[in-house]
């Protein structure tokens, strides 16, 4: 039973991020040799509420002008202290966003991956990284869109931006799409299709080791779902990381969104990517999103997990081991799904 307890605690930590700490990271630009290609990375900033938002621009070739029909991907990070590379001090060093950006550049597509306000390189953009909402993160996507179009203008001024929302980043991107006319499409990867409280409740119920505090956890979820705070002083120690006072405001806000309702309002092409080895988000969630959207493509990828790596084993510990290995490349099927989708948009 002990391994199961460890697994579920780790999954919930990665899903929610627990405390969103303000951290600094060193990011440098330069040339990257990958295979036969020379990729270019450079720092890029956008205006934040109290200071700059920081990110990394990855270009396929800095010496050639970017054709006007080529879109730019905006990689929107998942929950908690997840940095622009997709890493987290909670134990994730798989670098999925960095690897995705490099692989996309090898196929000719530029991207911008970002640090969230109040964290890492964007630490100065907000005084309190916990004082956030889905809508405020959406505001930052609008700012990033403007910065990208300034940095990579198209002659006709219509450079296409395609957000790639991963995990919680999918909810942020969904909520922001109505305010992003520059977005010619949307890609959701490992994104939930139900309100957050339902997903957390399912995760907790799935593990028998959680039985001693399941009733208390479900009561806390119901309280937060009503928009009310839980007395943090009465929460059992095992649940304090999940329902800490510092994250309750964000949880209340995030639980108020129904991803399928947002998906139904997206009238541009949407790609929903879901790996069958994902320990955090289910195939059923992906189907809900795809079924709700007016113009969606569903890509179910065998043996792909939450950090976009190939996992042949059904062993959850082997799956989790990939979360700490940046040397495992992005699953090729992820890249194929994304680039096939974009080529379809370009032909429309």
UniProtKB/TrEMBL annotation:
Transmembrane segment boundaries: none
Keyword Nucleus: no
GO molecular function: carboxylic ester hydrolase activity
Segments forming domain Serine aminopeptidase S33: 96-307
Segment forming the signal sequence: 1-26
Cross-referenced SUPFAM superfamilies: alpha/beta-Hydrolases (SSF53474)
Gene3D superfamilies reported for this sequence: alpha/beta hydrolase
Keyword Signal attached: yes
Keyword vocabulary terms for this entry: Signal
Record protein name field: Serine aminopeptidase S33 domain-containing protein
């Amino acid at each position: 039973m002990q391994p199961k307890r460890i697994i579920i605690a780790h999954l919930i930590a990665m899903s929610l991020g627990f405390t969103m700490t303000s951290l600094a990271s060193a990011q440098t630009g330069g040339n990257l040799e990958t295979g036969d290609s020379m990729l270019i990375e450079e720092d890029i900033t956008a205006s934040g509420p109290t200071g700059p938002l920081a990110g990394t621009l990855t270009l396929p070739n800095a010496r050639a002008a970017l054709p006007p029909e080529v879109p730019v991907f905006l990689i929107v990070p998942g929950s908690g202290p997840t940095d622009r590379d997709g890493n987290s001090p909670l134990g994730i060093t798989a670098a999925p966003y960095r690897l995705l950006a490099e692989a996309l550049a090898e196929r000719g597509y530029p991207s911008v991956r970002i640090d969230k306000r109040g964290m890492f390189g964007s630490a100065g953009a907000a005084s309190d990284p916990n004082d956030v909402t889905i809508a405020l993160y959406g505001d930052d996507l609008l700012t990033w869109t403007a910065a990208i179009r300034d940095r990579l203008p198209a002659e006709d001024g219509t450079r296409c931006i395609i957000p790639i929302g991963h995990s919680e980043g999918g909810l942020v991107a969904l909520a922001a799409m109505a305010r992003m006319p520059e977005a010619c499409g949307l890609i959701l990867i490992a994104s939930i299709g139900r309100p957050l409280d339902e997903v957390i409740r399912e995760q907790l119920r799935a593990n028998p080791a959680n039985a001693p505090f399941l009733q208390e956890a479900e009561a806390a979820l119901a309280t937060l779902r009503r928009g009310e705070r839980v007395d943090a002083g009465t929460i059992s120690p095992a649940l304090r990381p999940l329902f800490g006072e510092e994250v309750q405001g964000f949880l209340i806000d995030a639980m108020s969104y129904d991803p399928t309702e947002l998906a139904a309002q997206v009238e541009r092409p949407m790609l929903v990517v879901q790996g069958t080895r994902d320990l955090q988000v289910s195939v059923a969630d992906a189907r809900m999103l795809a079924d709700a959207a007016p113009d969606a493509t569903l890509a179910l990828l065998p043996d792909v997990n939450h950090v976009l790596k190939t996992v042949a084993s059904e062993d959850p510990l082997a799956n989790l081991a990939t979360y700490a290995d940046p040397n495992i490349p992005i699953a090729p099927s992820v890249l194929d799904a994304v680039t096939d989708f974009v080529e379809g948009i370009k032909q429309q």
